[in-house]
């Protein structure tokens, strides 16, 4: 089917509990609905994103003010562009970089490009939902000590895809004591700091660089994001230079205008929008707490050290009776109830919400979940169980950063996944979404990685970096 036709049919048919945060509703200026009529590139009088000193600069200043940042830049190729610039602007091959294992693949790609030595810090696992806990500040302190204060940067994701928030203030203090820049991938946290119902923004908590994905949780168009840089950030100048490297020379004015419109909207209607949003969420959590089989993640389910808070805007649901996998639950929501979820994992589904959701959308979701729950309740118990999710976390510690070289290694081929344990991966393999690496180029393929990928395949999830059931390896056996 033609792409445009497919988009139109989807838009008419399904309620979006996924990004973008505008939920396909026009929250911005009316003119943006007619994108063709205002689509230009840099022409006289319209400033230049790469040397902003006019219209764009003023718009970026408005966004900085809204987010309480010292300096903010527009990103038009998603949070990915900001992550690449932040990391490559802060560390180089003479440094090391500490990365939380559950970071997005863009963080690893940036670490690879920078050439910095990689040191991975693993989060604990929240057992109830089998997902990554927040990052324990003590683990960051230990990693900085183990790298003998050579690490130029620490990168963590907060909130995570599942809405898990780390203790940014403590982590920032530790980083600063050790002379490292704290980069927070807050791609999922652009709505923080606007209401007491949501956690504070990492910008206000002392992070040096924050990447804020406005297209994910705010009413702004796909690909829009912001990078906030603190005035105390020692690498601010290099990050600005790297933004020019990683950003197109023809940034879309439609996308930039969409960020500017979002900024105005929130400045003017923040209280009403967030009050209504928080009310919808509260009512949803109250109603769904009575379900018998389906379980919605709540802050009280999160007990591990490192987890500081939970973003209620991320709805994470699983079948506690383990008869439906995340993918099956997501398929039922889609096929039977016209609800499109953001992501389906082995055991749970993530639904993304924003200020642009409607009362009708939430009612549709609540009704669908009640009906699915009732159906599960009336079904006789069966022995069928969904696979137990495997923690797909890279081993903790120092990685020899030959990742880039491994990617271009000629002496590589593919082997069936079940035969790959102990071999060296050629590629970055992820289950997507969320895009957290299961293997890195040059890393040993662990037994756990194999099981986790097999589970994901069994559940019909999308894997990037593999060819069918084959995984690319270097023809050299690991000595470890
Ligand atoms: C935690 C996290 N960081 C970064 C990104 C990249 O964001 P973008 O797709 O806007 O480039 C994603 C994408 O889903 C993500 O989940």
Key terms:
480 residues; alpha+beta; Aspartate Aminotransferase, domain 2; Aspartate Aminotransferase, domain 1; Ornithine Decarboxylase, Chain A, domain 4; 3 domains; 8-stranded mixed β-sheet; 4-stranded antiparallel β-sheet; globular; binds pyridoxal-5'-phosphate
Task: Report on this structure.
This protein is an alpha+beta fold. It has three domains: 30-262, Type I PLP-dependent aspartate aminotransferase-like (Major domain) (Aspartate Aminotransferase, domain 2); 270-377, Aspartate Aminotransferase, domain 1, CATH 3.90.1150.10; 402-477, Ornithine Decarboxylase, Chain A, domain 4 (Alpha-Beta Complex). 36% of the residues lie in helices and 20% in strands. The chain contains 14 helices and 24 strands. The protein has helices spanning 3-13, 35-38, 55-67, 78-90, 105-114, 137-146, 168-177, 214-217, 236-246, 253-288, 326-337, 359-378, 403-407, 447-458, and strands at 15-17, 71-75, 96-100, 117-121, 125-126, 131-132, 151-157, 164-165, 181-186, 209-212, 225-229, 294-296, 309-310, 314-319, 339-341, 343-344, 348-352, 397-399, 412-416, 423-425, 429-431, 436-439, 463-464, 470-477. It has an eight-stranded mixed beta sheet with strand order 2-11-10-9-7-3-4-18, sandwiched between helices. It has a four-stranded antiparallel beta sheet with strand order 12-14-17-16. It is globular, with a radius of gyration of 22 Å. The mean pLDDT is 93. Bound molecules: pyridoxal-5'-phosphate.
């Amino acid at each position: 089917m033609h792409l445009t036709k497919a988009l139109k049919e989807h838009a008419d048919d399904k309620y979006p509990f996924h990004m973008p945060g505008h939920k396909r509703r026009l929250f911005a200026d009316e003119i943006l609905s007619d994108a063709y009529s205002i689509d230009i590139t840099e022409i006289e009088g319209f400033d230049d994103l790469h040397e902003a000193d006019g219209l764009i600069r003023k718009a970026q200043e408005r966004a900085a003010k809204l987010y309480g940042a010292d300096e903010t830049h527009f990103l038009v190729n998603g949070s990915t562009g900001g992550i690449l610039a932040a990391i490559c602007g802060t560390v180089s091959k003479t440094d090391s970089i500490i990365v939380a294992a559950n970071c997005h693949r863009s963080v690893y790609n940036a670490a690879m490009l920078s050439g910095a030595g990689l040191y991975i810090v693993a989060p604990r696992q929240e057992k109830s939902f089998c997902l990554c806990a927040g990052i324990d500040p003590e683990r960051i302190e230990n990693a900085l000590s183990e790298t003998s204060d050579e690490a130029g940067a620490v990168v963590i994701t907060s909130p995570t895809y599942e809405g898990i928030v780390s203790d940014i203030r403590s982590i920032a203090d530790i980083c600063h004591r050790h002379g490292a820049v704290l980069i927070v991938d807050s791609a999922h946290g652009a709505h923080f700091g606007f209401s007491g119902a949501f956690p504070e923004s990492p910008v206000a908590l002392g992070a040096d660089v924050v990447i804020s994905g406005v297209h994910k949780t705010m009413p702004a168009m796909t690909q829009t994001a912001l990078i906030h840089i603190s005035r105390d950030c020692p690498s601010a100048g290099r990050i600005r230079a790297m933004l020019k490297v990683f950003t197109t020379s023809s940034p879309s004015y439609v996308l930039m205008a969409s960020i500017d419109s979002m900024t105005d909207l929130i400045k003017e209607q923040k209280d009403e929008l967030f009050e209504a949003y928080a009310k919808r969420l509260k009512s949803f959590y109250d109603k769904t707490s009575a379900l018998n089989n389906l379980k919605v993640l709540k802050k009280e389910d999160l007990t591990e050290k490192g987890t500081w808070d939970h973003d209620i805007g991320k709805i994470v649901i699983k079948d506690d009776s383990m008869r439906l996998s995340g993918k099956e639950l997501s398929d039922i929501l889609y096929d039977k109830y016209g609800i499109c979820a953001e992501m389906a994992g082995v055991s749970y589904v993530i639904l993304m919400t924003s200020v642009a959701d409607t009362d009708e959308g939430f009612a549709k979701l609540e009704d669908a979940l009640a009906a699915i729950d009732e159906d599960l309740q009336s079904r006789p118990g069966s022995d069928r169980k969904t696979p137990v999710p495997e923690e797909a976390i890279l081993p903790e510690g120092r990685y020899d950063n030959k990742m880039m070289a491994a990617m271009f290694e000629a002496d590589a081929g593919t082997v069936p996944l079940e035969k790959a344990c102990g071999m060296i991966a050629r590629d970055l393999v992820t289950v997507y979404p969320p895009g957290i690496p299961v293997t890195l180029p040059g890393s040993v393929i662990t037994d756990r990685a194999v099981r986790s990928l097999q589970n994901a395949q069994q559940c019909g999830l999308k894997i990037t970096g593999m060819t069918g059931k084959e995984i690319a390896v270097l023809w050299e056996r690991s000595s470890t």
